[in-house]
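Notebook, p. 212. Picked up where the previous page left off. The plan for this session was modest: take the two constructs that came back from the sequencing core last week, fold each one, and keep the raw output in the notebook itself so nobody has to go hunting through shared drives later. Recording the first one now, exactly as returned: residue sequence, then the structure token string.
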Amino acid sequence: MPPWPHEPDLTSLAAFTLDPIGRVVSWPVTATSLLGHQAAAIIGRDVCEVLLTGPGQRSMVDHALAQVAAGAVCTTTAVGGPAGGGRFALRWEPTEGADGTVLVIVHRAQARPAPGWLSYATARIGSSLDLSQTASEVADAAVASFADAAVIYAAERLLAADDRGSHPQEHGTAVRRLAACLAGQEEALTGSLLPPGEVLFLAGDTPRAQAMASGEPHVCDHLDGETTARIARHPLGPQIAARYTSFLVMPLIARGVTVGCAVFGRTPASHAFNPSDVTHAGELASRAAVCIDNARLYDRERRTALALQRGLLPSQPSIPAGIEVAHRYLPVGGQVVGGDWHDIVSLPGGRAALLVGDAMGHGPEAAAVMVQLRTAAHTLAELDLPPRQVLGRLDTLAARMDVMSDGMTAPPFATCVYAVVDPAGGAGEITQAGHLPPVLVYSDGSAQTLDLPPGLPLGLGAESFEAVRFTLPPGATLALYTDGLVESRTRPVDDGLAALGRALGSALARPASTLDSACEAVTQALRDQGEDDITLLLARIR
């Protein structure tokens, strides 16, 4: 961000120097003209005693000096001061000398927003879909160009429950403070005075509640009593609040719904809000409301997906003592849930059933199919049925499932591999439904792809599935996986299977390797080529 948003005229600029602890070293004529002090009265004095005298500005100066001492350039904003006060942008720079002198360049902002401020402000909003960052961008853009303070609120009912219905608000409404920016105050002080994330209940007669209920802006010259009382709890609160004498509350309306409000404040150094300001603030609020609502909707979808993922992925399994298991699941792209699943089910006699499946597609639709198949497979496995019967019954269930897609009804398409491992016998039984074959990795790092009848995918009404017995010697590892680990548009599946065998052999042959670290190493090594969800399940006899 530049130190000031518009090209300043030379009469609004000045520069002076400080020593490393903040005492004025040089004070040219331009500084006297802009800031109102004679050189004889200011040189040698602490800058906070004669210029930056407002609340919180001591900590701002200390922070800026520390940044310069570390070799960085620091930009800050200050409100108040000499020569009638005003809003200032200050740029703190190290000089080339060895004495640690600090160059401070000061720009006094115009009393009225400069032409083009609205384009500058709106261009800074909406760079991400993070709700807090978006609200901070709105507040920072407003303070940089339009106001001396800005606070952004969102309707709590939308954030908590996505309740977009119309509610009577004559008795008040709950809001959540998303961001705040006060010119001349450090972020830490602003955060302690107006903490982000705090949920407030606004009485129906307060300007914020009235603006949100009516959808109309509200201009006033004082804070409401409840806000004044809350700010007074902070040691510097009354002193900071007293500096603002004009307030503008703008409702934030997106897609016909009031999603929150923005409160702007100005000090006497800036003119009071007038009808022209209200019009311009309305344009800023329109852009801000859409960006905040987009971020809110994204946050809602992300939280929903995370909740689904926690519910859809298997909980911590109960693994028999004679078996060691590790697993990884990586959804494709920006998805959080998808069609892959894996499960581990304890069986009588210390045996374990291992499942890996893949429902076609990504996202919520594939997850809806996946959770039904995984739940059914888990239940069938607990019955201790033979593997071929488990897949046979799962296939029957899948054929009866209907999945809506673009208005069409069709059975799901899914693949699955099911294995039962018996540690006592060092062997197992395995079958698959249209799935890629398991890989067996021996203690010396060599890998073998198990030769299994492929079977038809689930949901196609296969009459039977054929099971194969295999030996699992001490130190050998069985790998079950989904096609996202080995197949992509640029890599044939045979090449992917060869790469998987090499990656497994290399990871498992390392002297200090654990099954968990090997699982992590293999998925990370092969994920760059993947264009699908990735699941890897490793198991070996202890």
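Okay, moving on. Second construct, recorded in the same format:
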Amino acid sequence: METSITTENEFLDKFHPTIKGFLEQDQVSYLIDNVLVHGYRSPDCNAIWLRDHSDMLRGARYFESDMTSAITHFAMTQQANGSIYDFVSCAMDRENWTKYVRVPVEADVEFRFVKAIFLAWQATGDHAWMKEMLPHAERAMNYIFTHPWRWDAKHGLVKRAYTIDTWDFDFVDDHQPWLNFQISERTHWGIMHGDNSGYYEACMLLARMYHHLGDAARAAFWQQTGQGIRERANRLCWNGRFYAHRVPLDDFRMPGVNEAEQLSLSNPMDINRGLPTHEMAVAILREYQRRKQHTAAFAEWFSIDPAFPDGRFGDPKLVAGAYCNGGIMPLVGGELARAAFEHGFEQYGLETLLKYARMIYQKGETYLWYFPDGTPASLETSTSPDAQPTDGWGSSAMLYAFMEGLVGIVDESFRFKKIKLSPRWVIADVQNASIRVGYGASDAGLHYEFEWTPNKGRIQLLLEGESEVRLHLLLPAQRTALQAKLDGQLWPYHQSTIEMSQYIDAEFKAQGVHRFEVTLDR
């Protein structure tokens, strides 16, 4: 089924095809050992970086037919100690060599590898391929949990060098002439929340895959491992309002930096990976809203706020407000919008999507980062050799928020066999919507028609598909459900409250075409 979103709001209808257009320009294919390796490039480099590729699959899966070749290649080139390469490229230098790189200071590659496996399996339903990948995933996770560069045994959490959140270069002393990617005796270690939320999610995804294969013992092992990471990270990294940028493991403190106030980009990602409780997620969202009211920046999608002093990470271009040192990133905005929709801040989520839509419709461009005044990245201001106006990392995060947050289809299994269906169109004053969502790598798809008739106090969903459905339907403000019907028969439901938002919750099994109708009070 081809994905299409049709409503009476043409502004919203353009969102998916516009971002699909960006992603289609970000595709890269290499012939390596006579095998095609197809993936998605970073916006600032023509290599297939696993971190970007794995995140971009969340948007590309709605049209991409090849979800597995890049992941298979990273698995087949896995190093002897279990670690995974950061990227592969055949076009980075004048010589067309095949080039592999693992940046030593990086601690997040292995959880992104596991997430990519899960997303590919989810879209394809290829159980045999998934089973073949799991030993590689196990070795990658074992590397992280045992290597002295990655694991802090005292706290039972993943550690890393002093980088800016998840980025791939760390703080440099005066002796270092440029960006530093190496571990040395001068490395300042710390625990960064985003690594640990990523490994928590990876553990839970491994549990889900093993559960599907009927291996209860491995499923239980990974679930328990993940829960342990979650408990320890929430105890250590939470500062009462958000996750602290890092918890240092030595006495070094960056001169001129108020570390207690630094809000870094993995915070909304932590929410979407499931690390915080709902109450903690709400605190993070409110912190972003508070900073939105006080920032001079055009959006609160900070890579980090406040930024570090100029030049402390080795490149004079890394001034405050540039790139990962306080630049404004659609990547963060998309994660923030997705978190907002899920935790009762639907209006905030919608406003974020609309702000981004206005940006990309104006010139048909999107960049990895912007200066706070709205000036986009450029070759002159970037630390990287490229700065494409088709940023797929940030745009795919926005599409992820749009599809799962506003359109409201979350695949909780594979090929839509089990879904959470949360149409939130009432927040956008959309009364009619026709939704078709499919995966490009399989024939799996779902179709629903949404109709909200305010003067009759009725919301109807016409659903076509074969799924176990967990309906979580947003109601108009200050309205209460009087009854619900499935195919004309009264159906059990309950009304739940998330912050100030009211939802109808019901469960049913869809086989073919079904009509769910909610009658509201006047």
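Notes on construct two before I forget. The chain has a mean pLDDT of 95.
Flagging for discussion at group meeting.
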